Known about the structure:
Elements: H1 9-19, E1 32-49, E2 59-75, H2 87-91, E3 94-95, E4 98-99, E5 111-118
Antiparallel strand pairs: 1-2, 2-5, 3-4
Amino acid sequence: MADPSMDGDKNAITLMKEIDHVSPYPDEGVEYSTLWARCIQASLPLVEVNLRDYPQPLLALHEVSLSGRLMGAEEEAISTVASSASRSSAREGRVCGAERRRHDQPVQRHGEARGRFEEA
């Protein structure tokens, strides 16, 4: 069940600023294609990380408890200009007099979690 205090872009952005208060948020704002926030709480009897062809787990955690806030955000892609007249300025990182953002920038993930991990 979703927490209503985290529902909507405004609340999610406020939470993002609270979780990552060190990174400056742009004054002009950001358009997101994906933006969500949830409170999570989970107790797992076993968490294993395995390599495909190796029989022994790379990591094995027993009795894992997780709780905290989890967010996912992906910035809206900005279309590039394909006309030949603007290709040279696009190569220089400018489109129509404004700086162009790259499409291949990594998705920003913000999260905070607290947990108790006990090895067996």
